[in-house]
Amino acid sequence: MPRAGLTPQTVVREAARIADEVGLERLTLAAVASRLGVALPSLYKHVRGADALNQKLGALAIAELADEMTAAAAGRAGRDALRAVAAAWRDYARRHPGRYPAAQQVPAPDDPEHVAAGRQALDAIYAILRGYGLTGDDAVDAARTFRSAVHGFVTLEAAGGFGMPRGVDRSYEQLVAALDIAFRDWPDAGSPR
Amino acid sequence: MPRAGLTPQTVVREAARIADEVGLERLTLAAVASRLGVALPSLYKHVRGADALNQKLGALAIAELADEMTAAAAGRAGRDALRAVAAAWRDYARRHPGRYPAAQQVPAPDDPEHVAAGRQALDAIYAILRGYGLTGDDAVDAARTFRSAVHGFVTLEAAGGFGMPRGVDRSYEQLVAALDIAFRDWPDAGSPR
DNA sequence: GAAGAAAGCTAATGAGATTAGCCTTGCGGC
DNA sequence: GCCGCAAGGCTAATCTCATTAGCTTTCTTC
Q1: How many CB atoms neighbour CB A152 within 10 A?
Q2: N or C: which end of chain A has fewer CB within 10 A?
């Protein structure tokens, strides 16, 4: 029998596809093995186990997300950049409902690519905030606010948490507009920086 | 041997305690049974299974959260109410790291108490927004923005997603201040209401 | 063409969820 | 007080999934 020719990468990629199809919480090693046409224990030659697969999936996802955020920000500034990155973020979460939650894991310190991808995503946000004149502690606070608002929105949306008939697209536009207003008139923390 | 004297309520409450101790994802029927001093299958006389327990846990949690939000809002208005409810929300999430994520499930339509608790939490938010003069579609958008920002923040915080040394308490204050600014100067959607 | 590492396999173990079916407790009605 | 019976708890069995151990086979390299 010829070999299946697996690599850690093919395993993680298949896991990503399955996660998007059935949801991250229903991703199992058994399903990955079945889809790749191998017996379950064979996967252990490529990944350390279910936890490690999850972490690698997170690294893949945050790298993809960071790339799309960076691309969206390219050539834009201020409110345009804010809107483009926010749209790219939500779009990624909607196209990849399984990968997206995996992307939110804290990068594993022993995986330099994971750490780098996390930093790239964060850098895309800081670049936007520079356009609003926000730096230092203000930028940290504003970046956390941006991440919170956008992440919270796409998470609640994915969970079906928005029941009212009011259009969700419209609400997201309003949320982004609210961020724009807040960033333009960023509240003074009332302490020296 | 005397009976253990379980009820659906005692089972759910013990599950809530365990979830807070070890995390919702590690909550198992086996652990609940063990803590209650019964065999695992005995639980099925009180809850339909693991999924149902999770849903009931969500109902318990959103009811608790809604109560604390309502209490925080009592006697306050405007920015004070906003700050108090936001603080109560984050506080609940920190005190109950296992219950909190369960509280985010969409209420089961066949559980009237669950639905009512969800509505109560939402009403607490609408009450705040009325203080800012936000009603109708604006209130829907603003409520989604508030939920997104606060839920996103506490979720990222719980996941350890804020790595920078900047104090997280301070960032939360700034997020709430940003919401205050946005609500006071709510962006016009540019369409008739 | 042989050696050896790498990749796959089967078998075994163990946690957890679920279902079926038994046994007993303890309450309500007499 | 006692009887009946519903409800609560149990054991046993089955299933899925994760993990480890150890065997076999396939490539690759010299």
Answers
A1: 25
A2: N
